[in-house]
Amino acid sequence: MKTQEILFRKTSAIPSPNFGLFSLYKYPAKFIPQVPAFVMENYAKKGMRVFDPFAGFGTVGYTARLYGLDYELWDLNPLLKHLHFLCEIEPKPLDKSLVDKIKAHPQEFLPNWRSLSYWHPEAFLPMLSKAWTFYHQTADEHTKGLLLVPLLKLTKHFSYADEKLHKLYRSKHAKEKVERLLKEDYQGLFFGMLEREIQKTLQKLSEYQTLGPQKVKSTVKAGVDVLEEDLKEPVNILITSPPYLQAQEYIRSTKLELFWLGYTENYI
User: Fold this and answer.
1) Which fold has domain 8-89+212-246?
2) How is the chain split into domains, by residue range?
3) Which residues contact 233 (CB under 8 A, 6 or more apart)?
4) What is the DSSP string of 37-102?
5) How far are the Cα atoms of 32, 161, 203 from residue 15, in angstroms, in the given order?
6) Is the pTM of this model over 0.70?
7) Tens digit of each residue's pLDDT (9 = 90 or more) over 133-147
């Protein structure tokens, strides 16, 4: 059999691994989109259905839309359901007064987490509570979708968690960061960063739209119930990356985010 070396980054129309939704959020062991794109370009046909049983961030689903392919995604981490919704959102601007509304919002939601004070200084909790209460209470799915990644990023930034690592780790670097923030106008910084991150999300959504995603049928199943699932419909192509040998560490890497999304300690 004749073999040929392939440089995946140069085999598809996707400009770079950082283009559009593909780099919207830092996620452990993420596929570069050119890998599933190479498979779909060379082996898929219209009407085929793609399956990723260890979907993680959901790159296979985002890519399948570019080729007009139906798909099914599974993952142990329920964060997939929240992140995947982003590919269905239109990049239309939000109300300019949104951040002001969040600032004035009541503080009602806090994670039911025994370790909350270990990961967040008490001073940061009021502004985090305002933002996440607004997120959980808004009925506007478009607003909710555009707030998701900015809030996930800011929640980790305003914590003792190390943002550079793909695990929940309280590092010396993160502690120094928090000490600096506490000496500054951290509320002004928080809401300023929120506004900028919303704009970044809109930009990433607009980039993704330039690739021409199509309306397709998709099924997304995420969380512990996936362990008991069976495929209800046949699939033609399976594209996935090897799962972690220690699922405990995989979930732990997004534990802080899952608590703020409202998941319970027992569930996590």
Assistant:
1) Rossmann fold (3.40.50)
2) 8-89+212-246, 98-206
3) 49, 72, 219
4) HHHHHHH--TT-EEEETT-TTTHHHHHHHHTT-EEEEEESSTHHHHHHGGGG---PPPPTTHHHHH
5) 11, 32, 15
6) yes
7) 999 999 899 999 999
